[in-house]
Amino acid sequence: MATRREFITKTTLASAALATTHWSAGLAAVPGNGTRTVFKQQKTENMRYEFPTKAGLGGVAAGNGFSENTNAQITATMQAAWDNGVRYFDTSPWYGLGLSERRMGHFLFEKKREEFVLSTKIGRILEPDAGFTPNPDLLWKGRLNFRHKYDYSADGVRRSVEDSLQRMGLSSIDVVFVHDLSPDNGDLGKNWTEQFKIAEKGAFPELTRMREEGIIKAWGMGVNTPEPILKCLEVADPDVMLVAIQYSLVEHKNALEQVFPAMDRKKVTAVIGGPLNAGFLANRERFNYGGKMPGDMVAKRNKFNAIIKNYNVDLRTVALKFCASHPTVGAVIPGASTAEQAAANTRSFSVEIPSGLWAELQAAKLIEANTPV
């Protein structure tokens, strides 16, 4: 009987060879939409890993994050993103406890594997449980059918990757993020440092081995706080970090001063998750992962809107272009639950922002003076 290592190796190496094609070939040309040069990624000194498109699509909505979405709705959303040039898709076993991976895999199954980049995450192993009753405050809505347990060990990494491949029906995963190993994870609490020690001896070296074996192309942390990113850079050899809700129009000082410089020293690429703070910067009445919207953030958003309205652009576009402009950033992955949202997000990356707007925002001290825009 084949071991887990043998299973993953055999099913991924062949497809990995196909994906060595240079990404710039054909990806800037979008049928029916002309040529969107914004998506043509240029490798820089700061990037150990190169994404095919600056604009990606996050998979929270595909997991029924915040509200229930139909299969048809998610398929239409992904199709709109694809039609507008997106070729990077991010998901996780945690998103809807497997639902996001199943839906994204169903859509991507019809695409040539060498034409897109896919990232998912490890850290939670799913177990069948038809009677699982989630906390009403849980982000995921609708029927779940699974519970989860945390596992940041080497064996846990192999099992998680194998499970994800089978859920998605795909032959390979490009990027793997170590998910939610962070002090803001309420399940872990102060124990997150003990789990980090397990990952330091288990998940981190195992992911490096998988990269060396050609099973994956890159790995890193996928977290909402800076501490695990900085610790991982000290003790391991990651390629890319999913920097979630840490670099946006309304919150970016710490990323500029600490996180990005530390990543630059190791030539590690950033993926920006939550660039719109869960729709807040698209003027939705929601901030990050729910709860009451902070009054100071609402006041700050009002100040942004008051200035931006004079430049014939919208807040969402300014927010996405802000994130995409930093040289450490390889991709930005806003979420979308409708085709209209996906199309609007991707179109925003093609908009030229007047330099006067950035200057006015800096003068008003709404964005840091050293922000590269």
UniProtKB/TrEMBL annotation:
Pfam families: Aldo_ket_red. It comes from the Bacteria. Residues 1-28 form the signal peptide. This is Aldo/keto reductase. Residues 56-363 form the NADP-dependent oxidoreductase domain. SUPFAM superfamilies: NAD(P)-linked oxidoreductase. GO terms for molecular function: oxidoreductase activity. Keywords: Signal. GO terms for cellular component: cytosol. Gene3D superfamilies: NADP-dependent oxidoreductase domain. The keyword Signal applies.
